[in-house]
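Good morning,

Both structures are done.
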Amino acid sequence: MAQMTVTLKAEMKRGSFYWVATVDAESKDEAIVAAENLFQAEMEKAGDWSFADFEVTLDQPA
């Protein structure tokens, strides 16, 4: 088993959401499933977490 870092991206109605998780897996497919499962487990207790890092950029008018 190898340790892998997986970045998942979801396009949502009002923006994009990225989930980054480190998992132990035998393959890339298994790593994706493991990261999705960790995300689902975290969402069950979403009220317990908040964003700790951010980046803001100014959109330039055309």
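Second structure follows.
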Amino acid sequence: MRGVFHRFEAGEEILDPGSLRNGKLFKYYNRETMAAVATAALLFSETPPPADTPFFYATGETESCKFFELIRQKVDCEHFSSRFYVDEILPRISPLVQFKMMRNMVSCMVAIENGLKGDNSLILDSASALLYAALSSPYSGEVIIGAGKMYADDVVECGLAFVLPSELAGHRMLGSDSRAIDFFREEVWR
């Protein structure tokens, strides 16, 4: 198992669009996507993965979405409902912003940037689910697992690792309620 964990502080520049293979896609990146692409570049710098390598990624809930805070400031909270959001607010949101908010955006952009065409799965903030996804992969070699978390203050953390599914058997985070980013923060591959 070998991996990379990185924490990007608020205001820290994460990624230069000029360093991307397809810089045109940068406009679709949020901070977590930037962090994941930058972290993948570090992990893959020595050994790029084969194109058919499976990639399993867990994204953490953003602690506070500035976008929704702005909506709440402009809308009387007593009248804020999902129906009101769909009928009145959503049509006013730029499709570019909507695209950045898609849950699978991070794993898709990492896959596109690195030519990964194997299985690709998104998990919501569960270390156990992330490890079980890797464990159940029928792939015969190393798989890639990753996790990211954006915080209300614009700090973002990301970790990625190459693992053999057999290395995860019996891991203490299987069946736990641990967040996926904790697997990487603890740097278990060292």
